[in-house]
């Protein structure tokens, strides 16, 4: 009911809402990885295939062909059924009763790998690995995008260990909430890739050689609560509620209702886009983007710049070598600031497409009051020149996300220089 408030009530209310928005955004944490990969080294698990004998590393074609003779086409889960359809999954498989891993130290190594994966995926340390299948992908073999069904009680993730075998292609591509990673298992040593069961993944076609892997189900004790990590989207309900209030109140007050939230990392004007964002920045902007599909707000990214111009002290050497001094390296603190300006250097949409440049920045719209503090500036220094003392310009740049009430997006975008 903004219309009944006195100005000071309104201002207090707005300040309260802004600090709630700041708290809600500050509370967003870096999510755990949804998938991870790494190298293990050249370790022989002592693969012994029943009816065949030991398999030597790296895998040779003759042994690959012999194993394929023992193997069967791998099925895949479709609803409650498992079916074989080589246009979806084309892989040879040996089930865990058909082979053994005879090297006694293999389990110790496996425990180390599983502990590392548990850390990377932020899984509880009680996670244990259960050997599931051995897979051999020959030329043309692949597995189309799918998620993994729960093959054991408490199963939360899949671990694939690649064994040394020369091959090309066969990369695993994992996709989760708009993020994609590609893993290539090693030809020459053991390596691993792991992902939460609900992460969509595919194995691209092998173009030559044999891709040879062991698959493990990673499961938590059935008594453990399921981890929130990659399985569930983070809980952004507080941010949603606060933004909803802002849209209803603050956003109806001004013609260009928006606010800026400074990101943790700096990005260059050329690179800034959703894809380039790291860790918590990605989580924050992704949360805002998801909310923008439910509330009438638009999200942009920008490089914000503060420029300070003024004079500075010069050392006596400058007076006698004025032209050298023009190129003095190092930092010159401003003695007397003659002008301070704030600008939106470059505004882009989440795909990184420029929508605006050179708009004046109203610093009151930045949620963090100390936005430009603790930033090391870039500087341009002009040394002692005849009658003029030395002068200096400092530029402080930060990257921020803009949240704009959709009713004022058009006016927000006016007032900048034409995009370049
Ligand atoms: O071969 C791989 O890397 C993955 C296999 C897979 O996705 C599965 O067994 O569900
Ligand atoms: Fe899978």
From TrEMBL:
Top-rank taxon of the source lineage equals Eukaryota
Q: Which UniProt keywords apply?
A: Iron, Metal-binding, Oxidoreductase
Q: Name one Pfam family in it.
A: 2OG-FeII_Oxy_3
Q: Tell me one GO molecular function of this protein.
A: metal ion binding
Stretches assigned to the Fe2OG dioxygenase domain: 126-220
Whether Membrane counts among this entry's keywords is: no
Q: Determine if Oxidoreductase is one of this entry's keywords.
A: yes
The record's listing under Gene3D superfamilies reads: q2cbj1_9rhob like domain
Q: Which PANTHER family match?
A: FE2OG DIOXYGENASE DOMAIN-CONTAINING PROTEIN, MYND-TYPE DOMAIN-CONTAINING PROTEIN
Instruction: Tell me which family the UniProt entry assigns to this protein.
Output: Belongs to the iron/ascorbate-dependent oxidoreductase family.
Q: What's the protein here called? A: Fe2OG dioxygenase domain-containing protein
């Amino acid at each position: 009911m903004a219309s009944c408030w006195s100005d000071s009530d309104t201002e207090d209310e707005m300040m309260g809402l802004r600090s709630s928005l700041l708290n809600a955004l500050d509370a967003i944490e870096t999510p755990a990885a949804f998938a991870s990969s790494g190298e293990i080294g050249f370790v022989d698990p002592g693969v012994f295939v029943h009816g065949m004998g030991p398999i030597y590393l790296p895998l040779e074609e003759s042994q690959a062909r012999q194993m394929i003779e023992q193997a069967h086409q791998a099925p895949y889960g479709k609803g409650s059924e498992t079916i074989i359809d080589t246009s979806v999954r084309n892989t040879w498989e040996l089930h865990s009763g058909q082979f053994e891993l005879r090297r006694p130290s293999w389990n110790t190594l496996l425990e180390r790998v599983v502990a590392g994966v548990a850390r990377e995926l932020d899984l509880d340390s009680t996670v244990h690995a259960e050997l599931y299948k051995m897979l051999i992908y020959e030329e043309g073999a692949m597995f189309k995008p799918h998620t993994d069904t729960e093959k054991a009680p408490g199963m939360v993730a899949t671990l694939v260990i690649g064994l040394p075998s020369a091959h090309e292609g066969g990369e695993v591509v994992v996709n989760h909430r708009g993020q994609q990673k590609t893993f290539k298992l090693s030809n020459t040593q053991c390596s691993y890739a792991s992902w939460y069961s609900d992460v969509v993944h595919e194995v691209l076609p092998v173009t030559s050689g044999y891709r040879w892997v062991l698959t493990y189900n990673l499961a938590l004790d059935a008594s453990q609560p399921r981890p929130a990590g990659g399985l569930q989207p983070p809980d952004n309900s507080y941010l949603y509620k606060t933004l909803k209030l802002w849209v209803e109140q603050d956003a109806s007050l001004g013609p260009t209702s928006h606010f800026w939230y400074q990101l943790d990392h700096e990005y260059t004007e050329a690179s800034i886009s959703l894809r380039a964002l790291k860790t918590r920045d990605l989580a924050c902007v992704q949360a805002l983007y998801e909310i923008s599909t439910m509330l009438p707000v638009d999200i942009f990214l920008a490089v914000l710049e503060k420029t300070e111009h003024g004079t500075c002290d010069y050392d006596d050497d400058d007076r006698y070598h004025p032209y050298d001094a023009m190129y003095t390296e190092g930092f010159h603190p401003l003695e007397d600031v003659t002008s301070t300006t704030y600008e939106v250097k470059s505004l882009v949409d989440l795909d990184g497409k420029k929508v605006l440049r050179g708009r004046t920045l109203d610093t009151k719209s930045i949620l963090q009051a100390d936005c430009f503090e603790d930033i090391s500036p870039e500087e341009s220094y002009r040394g002692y020149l005849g009658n003029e003392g030395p002068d200096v310009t400092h530029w402080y740049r930060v990257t921020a996300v803009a949240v704009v009430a959709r009713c004022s997006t058009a006016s927000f975008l006016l007032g900048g220089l034409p995009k370049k």
